[in-house]
Design a protein that fits this description.
The complex is a heterodimer of chains A (410) and B (250). Chain A is an alpha/beta fold and 410 residues long. Helix content of chain A is 36%, strand content 10%. Chain B folds into three domains: 2-104, no CATH class; 108-168, no CATH class; 181-237, no CATH class. Classes of the chains: A alpha/beta (410), B alpha+beta (250).
Chain lengths: 410, 250
């Protein structure tokens, strides 16, 4: 029986939900006022809905097809899986994107695909969809294309011309993991493709000598994703890999995707619920590394097994292990140290620094800045507040760690 | 602007009772306040913040704006003290307006209605907390330029016909529209959800229940939550070799 568009949509969005990213921010500012077309991207993206898994739905995230010649153990679409298969025509993807966009369901399209025939054939079809949206339909919304690592350079170049963001999945935190679970993928090729994307992105950020205009190439940069919990890599290894990727390829984001049970899973993989708290702690650690001036080695120093503490967040874990650095006086401390206080975010720190020039900051001020006093009090000195001997308490950690709960509720 | 005259006359905030009549307001509705004359210059932060808080539905917004204006005359750095009581309150009001504006951009759902001309026509019904229709309307114009649309709300209406963007303050009524594409959207919503990662509170903090009645996908939520545990259990047990029975919505 011929599949309807609705059948295909069901199968190919089921197949796409293991991609963590739904970001639609950080691209150029565009709108349709002059062109009279459809679509805009203005600063931060918009989450148009939230699924009961708490994740934002910002883009139409689908696979072009879930037929695939590869057999990656962790993937629902691997060639040996019994999952139902379907394939959209390029016109169907274009139609769905535009009709969803017109109803304000989405910010744009995140298109990925299983590999059919070969890498170039697959990539060529994906580029055709992006080109069709931009050129034929004057679509200015957001487009994210998952590029195929082995695709030819000229196809990648075209993809960057039409897409806001390109991404290539690193898949697993270590080369050994990739070789074990995705035997047809090659870590060296994945890194080579990332390096090529980086040079394209760098080149496009410089105006050309002749026209003084910037060439367009993936203005929202590149990102990647790795699966957590499928192999035995520790958090220290994972974060070390991420730091390397941020440094070498200037990725906008590394997404961590807790390995999630899939229908008809491979017997190589752990049949368990996804380690969501671990994934959350990795994102927090990633954030500390990128925005709070922490080094990876500091973040993972607390435990000898190289794993992050699941009970308390990594910033608090660091503070508990470095009590000699506290208390911090919020009226005099440097920005760098204020950022290390558990419970202070970047905004709070900036508000403190701007405000303390004019007034002495006390606990009431923090309360009005919506800071959790319970969390910060042991670590700060403020106007009218000194944390007597709280910091010396051996049981300080128990003030923060969650009450023991039944495992089933976690 | 009433506040300007009062300030010039030296009337202190506690001597004024600000009221609104029939929804009209003393700051002139959605009009942008004209810049204050040099006689009492105010920081740009005040102008920006006032434009936000006059959209708020709290009747105390005018009194607060005037009190800030009054205090600014002697406390030049007031706005740099984010922890000041009045500044905090104003910023919270502004934040609430921003959030409402953002949620409007996110949760308006256009439904296609018949068209006589070459341009397609759409209509949406939305229920904002604050008076934000006029400030959000240009966003929809910049984005949905090639189609005609109307956004109707209990706090006013915005419309675009390809040439003119018009906003009106009269309250509208829910038009009760139907669009076949909503069914495809529900299919997508249902299948992009991963039942192994159920986090209901995270969803509801971002998409509170008050919005659900105007979101076509929200009717699926109770069943998706109820079935999540079973579906995950089946995947872990690997019992179902063919496919997990994900419900296909209408």
């Amino acid at each position: 029986m011929k599949r309807t568009l609705k059948d295909k949509l069901a199968i190919l969005s089921d197949a796409a939900k293991y991609d963590a990213s739904c970001a639609s921010s950080g691209t150029t500012n565009r709108n349709s006022v002059k062109s009279g077309g459809l679509g805009s991207t203005e600063g931060s993206g918009i989450c148009h809905a939230y699924a009961p898994d708490g994740r934002c739905i910002s883009l139409l995230k689908i696979l072009m097809t879930n037929f695939c010649i590869y057999d990656c153990a962790y993937c629902i679409n691997r060639s040996s899986s019994n999952v139902e298969r379907a394939r959209f025509t390029p016109e169907e993807v274009v139609w769905l994107t535009l009709e969803f966009y017109r109803r304000n369901y989405i910010e744009g399209l995140f298109l990925s695909s299983g590999i059919i025939r070969n890498s170039d054939y697959t990539m060529e079809q994906m580029v055709r969809i992006a080109r069709n949206l931009r050129v034929e339909h004057n679509f200015q919304g957001y487009i994210h294309l998952k590029t195929i690592p082995e695709a030819s350079a000229h196809l990648i170049e075209q993809a960057g011309l039409f897409a806001d963001r390109l991404s290539i999945n690193i898949e697993l935190p270590t080369d050994a993991g990739v070789e074990k679970f995705a035997p047809q993928k090659h870590p060296a090729n994945i890194r080579r493709s990332m390096g090529e994307l980086k040079s394209h992105i760098d080149a496009a950020s410089e105006p050309t000598l002749r026209t003084k205009q910037r060439k367009r190439f993936a203005p929202a940069g590149q990102s990647t994703q790795m699966i957590i919990g499928a192999d035995t890599a520790t958090d220290a290894t994972i974060l070390g890999t991420s730091a390397g990727l941020y440094g070498k390829y200037q990725l906008r984001r590394v997404y961590y995707s807790a390995f999630s049970p899939i229908p008809d899973a491979s017997s190589l993989l752990p049949p368990a619920k996804p380690p969501l708290m671990r994934e959350h702690r990795l994102y927090q650690a990633d954030w500390l590394y990128r925005f709070y001036g922490f080094g990876i080695e500091e973040i993972v120093a607390a435990r000898p097994d190289g794993m992050l503490d699941l009970e308390v967040d990594p910033k608090l874990a660091w503070a508990l292990g470095n009590r000699d650095r506290f208390p911090v006086d919020i009226n005099t401390a440097e920005r760098e140290m204020l950022l290390r206080v558990p419970g202070f975010g970047v905004r709070t720190v900036d508000a403190l620094i701007a405000g303390r020039v004019h007034t002495r900051m006390g606990l009431d001020d923090l309360k009005r800045l919506k800071v959790s006093l319970k969390k910060v009090k042991p670590f700060i000195v403020a106007n009218g507040w000194t944390p007597l001997k709280v910091l010396d308490r051996a049981d300080l950690r128990t003030l923060f760690a969650p009450e023991p709960r039944q495992l089933v509720l976690l | 602007m009433a506040a300007r005259g009062l300030l010039a006359d030296g009337v202190p905030p506690e001597a004024i009772a600000w009221t609104t009549e029939d929804g009209g307001d003393l700051f002139g509705g959605s009009e942008t306040p004209s810049p204050a004359p040099a006689a009492f210059s105010v920081p740009k932060a005040f102008v920006d913040l006032t434009q936000d808080i006059i959209c708020h539905s709290d009747p105390a917004r005018f009194a607060l704006a005037y009190r800030l204006l009054w205090r600014l005359q002697s406390e030049k750095h007031l706005f740099e003290i984010a922890s000041d009581t009045d500044v905090t309150r104003a910023r919270l009001m502004a934040k609430s307006v921003h959030r409402d504006d953002h949620k409007m951009r996110a949760f308006v759902r256009f439904k296609e209605i018949g068209s006589k001309g070459p341009r397609r026509r759409f209509m949406a019904w939305f229920e904002p907390d604050h008076f934000i229709v006029a400030r959000a309307a240009p966003f929809f114009q910049r984005r949905f330029t090639d189609m005609d649309w109307i956004i109707a709300t209990p706090k006013g209406t915005a419309a675009w016909d390809g040439e003119h963007l018009t906003t009106r303050e009269e309250l509208a009524e829910n038009p009760d529209l139907h669009d076949d594409a909503d069914s495809l959207w529900r299919t997508y919503y249902c299948h992009i959800f991963n039942p192994a990662r159920l986090k209901v509170r995270a969803m509801q903090s971002q998409m509170p229940k008050k919005y659900w009645k105007n979101l076509p996908e929200a009717e699926l939520i109770p069943d998706l939550i109820a079935e999540a545990e079973t579906r995950t259990g089946q995947m872990i047990a690997g019992r179902n070799r063919d496919q997990v029975p994900a419900r296909r919505p209408r």
